[in-house]
């Protein structure tokens, strides 16, 4: 599942996800009818509209195969948020069936495929931002496991590391001043750590933090975790650029 942000802003993340999954031995299917996971309406409180989107997701991704998502927040919508909004609905068993096979991509690599080592080099200092939606899941530790396994990667500690970036989807629209202030606080600590790259498994966070950085002239490149894994594999000659 490529997600809306891959479609609109991060097409290379979708391509990197396919490349890494195929390297891992997977056959990747991409249903053309896919749209949104339903999270924007869910977060805004419009659960009726969100349920309509989730029903489309269930129809589009029907079957037994794992649904792998390069986004902690979209994955969490699939295995957590959707269940909450369908608790009193007849479709709940079908929602749970989808939830049980929905994975964030780094979680799937580590805990679904038992991959804990990525060959190749990526000699850079990385500030890894763990998104709010990945807290309480295996995604953050999985991403750290994979990044730490790459030769040359230095994962940096920085202040307010567990702090929200301030995006929060609809939150950033409803409370833009608070959202911006939270992002600026996060960026202040990231900049102090002097990373070569800011990295996350959530594109919404990268979009939000990146937008503030660009406006303030803070030129720290941003990369999704899966892009770094892909680049290391290219360095190792495991996949083609």
TrEMBL record:
Record-level GO cellular component terms: cytosol
GO MF annotation: an example: oxidoreductase activity
Highest taxon of the lineage: Bacteria
Pfam families: CCG
Protein name: Lactate utilization protein A
Ranges of residues in domain Cysteine-rich: 3-77, 126-209
């Amino acid at each position: 599942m490529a997600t809306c942000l891959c479609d609109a802003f991060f097409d290379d993340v979708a391509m990197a996800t396919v490349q890494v999954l195929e390297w891992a031995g997977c056959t990747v299917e991409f249903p053309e009818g896919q749209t949104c996971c339903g999270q924007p309406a869910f977060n805004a409180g419009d659960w009726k509209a969100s349920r309509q989107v989730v029903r489309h997701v269930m129809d589009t991704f029907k079957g037994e195969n794992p649904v792998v998502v390069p986004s902690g927040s979209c994955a969490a919508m699939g295995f957590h948020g959707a269940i909450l909004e369908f608790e009193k609905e007849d479709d709940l068993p079908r929602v749970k069936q989808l939830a049980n096979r929905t994975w964030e991509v780094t979680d799937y690599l580590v805990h679904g495929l038992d991959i804990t080592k990525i060959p190749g080099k990526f000699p850079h200092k990385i500030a890894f931002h763990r998104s709010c939606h990945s807290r309480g899941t295996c995604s953050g530790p999985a991403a750290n496991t994979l990044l730490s396994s790459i030769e040359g990667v230095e994962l940096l500690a920085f202040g307010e590391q567990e702090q929200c970036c301030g995006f929060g989807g609809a939150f950033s629209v409803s409370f833009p001043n608070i959202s911006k202030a939270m992002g600026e606080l996060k960026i202040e600590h990231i900049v102090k750590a002097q990373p070569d790259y800011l990295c996350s498994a959530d594109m919404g966070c990268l979009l939000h933090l990146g937008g503030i950085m660009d406006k303030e002239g803070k030129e720290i490149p941003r990369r999704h975790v899966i892009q770094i894994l892909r680049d290391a594999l290219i360095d190792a000659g495991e996949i083609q650029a």
